[in-house]
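Title: Prediction job returns without error message
Component: structure pipeline
Severity: low
Priority: P3
Assignee: unassigned

Description:
Job completed but the reporter wants confirmation the result is attached to the right record. Sequence as submitted:
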Amino acid sequence: MIKVGIPRALLYYQYYPMWRTFFEELGAEAIVSPVTSRVMLQEGGARVVADTCLPVKIFIGHVLSLIGNCDFIFIPTIRSIRKNTYNCSKFLGLSAMTRAAVPEAPPILDIMVDVNKGRLRLYQAIYRLGKNFTPYPHKIRQASLDAWRTQLKYRYMMSNRGLTQPQAIAKVLGTSTPESQVESPETKTTIAVIGHPYLLHDDFISHRIIPRLKQANVKVLTPEMLADTTLESAVMKVMGRIQWTCESEIVGAGEHYLRSDVDGVINVMAFGCGPDSLMMDVIRRQATRLRSTPFMNLTIDEHTSEVGIITRLEAFMDMIYRKQRARVAVCG
């Protein structure tokens, strides 16, 4: 059986169920790299220039961990998933960067996804990818349809049932939910944590921000729990139009949650990320203007101290608890 390696980084959190379904329907086995570790970061960072952003350094580390365990490594080029809207440049050159940084890696399976070029180009790209596993077009078509149905189910689990991406992955694929994602039924405080999935749900990068909040009996809301239409509407209120995909994840979720009844909003971003720095500033300005919901920004890199994150998180939660007690006292 052909084994296809999938790095547990970057777009993994958004599309893994769909990718796995596609490859398994074609008779291949999807091999996922282990969870992120300090060794992965060090090895990945040693292969790229110092100015490379943290998520890409970790991605390269995940690719290195797959060497010897698979026949191919799947690294799609996701250029655009919405008309006239584009992804960050790191996604556009990811496969080429990986080939240059890790020349000893197994053959890389690449597929260009750009809705601006029309459906025909996308279908042709899917068939070229599928031909690595079968010569029969009808099998490739069926595999792609099954994969898309899986993606729709995955998206439904998050936006309609309020599951985080790790929870939804476990639900869709029939595996056990990670213990760190189990939420206490006794939650009195709601915190929205916004940012890219590859930051929020990678416990090494984020220093387990979401699990820590859940252990403190906090209900956690994330961008993927909002419907696409809700995110787009929120972005339009702030910016007038959507130009980057990351705007929906950060600006859309931030604008929505700042105007909702959550008790606080935490934004997580990677140091050195240009798009993130712009989007965070937009949300920070909104939070200052609205003055209704406590807001905290956490910027992380490979040198970020776990103790520092915990200290800031505890201080933020103490502020929210004081605000809640004051509100109860006034009402009482």
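Comment from assignee: result matches the submitted record. The two ends are 67 Å apart (CA to CA).
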